[in-house]
Amino acid sequence: MPHELSLRDTDRIIEMAWEDRTPFGAIEYQFGLSEAEVIELMRRELKPGSFRRWRKRVQGRKTKHEALRRDAVGRFKSDAQRQITFNKISKKKY
To answer: How many domains in the chain?
Structure first.
């Protein structure tokens, strides 16, 4: 690892790595870790079985590798996610 990561950053990287629609490029942009460094972090932080399951899941997955993605695959945004309008975060109405 080129620099020390906080526990919070490590947890967020693991979360992003498990997400199907978060490409490795987004992790690199946000945290400065290459795909190989993310794999190394996952190998170190996960249990062996969890790491194998994760590797099998993301290996060759088009949404994890920006070069393999279709142009139609954009950033995923949940319907429950707050909307930002005119720099004010609107409240969800129930």
So the answer is: 1
Look at residue 62 in the predicted model and tell me its pLDDT: 73
Distance between CA 81 and CA 20 in Å, rounded? 17
Q: What is the CA radius of gyration of the chain?
A: 16
Structural domain range at position 27: 7-69
CB 38 within 8 A of CB 1: no
Q: What is the pTM of this model?
A: 0.65
Per-residue burial over 5-35, b = 16 or more CB atoms within 10 Å of its CB, e = otherwise: beeeebeebbebbeeeebbbeebeeebebeb
Contact 36, 72 (CB under 8 A): no
Assigned domain for 64 exists? yes
